[in-house]
Amino acid sequence: MANSPWGTIDKVTRVAPNLAWVDTPSHGGLRVAQAWGQMNLSLAALSRAERRHGYYWFEEDLAYALPCWELRQLRPHLFAHRLGGQREAERLATLADIDQELHQIITHWYPGYWREVDRTTA
Questions:
Q1: I want to staple 92 with a disulfide (CB 3.0 to 4.6 A). Which of 54, 97, 101, 113 is the partner?
Q2: Rounded to whole angstroms, how far apart are CA atoms 65 and 30?
Q3: How far is 19 from 96, CA to CA, in rounded Å?
């Protein structure tokens, strides 16, 4: 199988064309095809990803929050995998709960992201 920034990929879960969760024996994250990412994600998000092998890579603990935040229409699917499946995602009462968790991660770990996004969308 292919390699990721975290090692050899042993599982790929496709969320949408050009977008997939990847798992390795020790870690994982979200894999975004480079051309698709450049069309659908902000420079603020892309600059915080690892870039290699034609993909942007967002690790599963924190960086995943950036594309999840920006890809609002895919958030329930992205978050379901993060929580171990759709049944787990259903435990979150609303999309607002997901939004709150993502916002907290981004604010704490990537505070400069908000300023950059405001600059590029203004």
A1: 97
A2: 10
A3: 23
Residue pair 92/79 in contact (Cβ under 8 Å)? The answer is yes
Burial environment of residue 83 by CB neighbours within 10 A (0 to 12, 13 to 18, 19 or more): middle
User: How crowded is residue 109: how many other Cβ atoms within 10 Å of its Cβ?
Assistant: 14
Tell me the three state secondary structure of residue 15. strand
- Give the model confidence (pLDDT) of 24-69 as tens digits: 999 999 999 999 999 999 999 999 999 999 999 999 999 999 999 9
CB 12 within 8 A of CB 22: yes
Domain that holds residue 106: 3-121
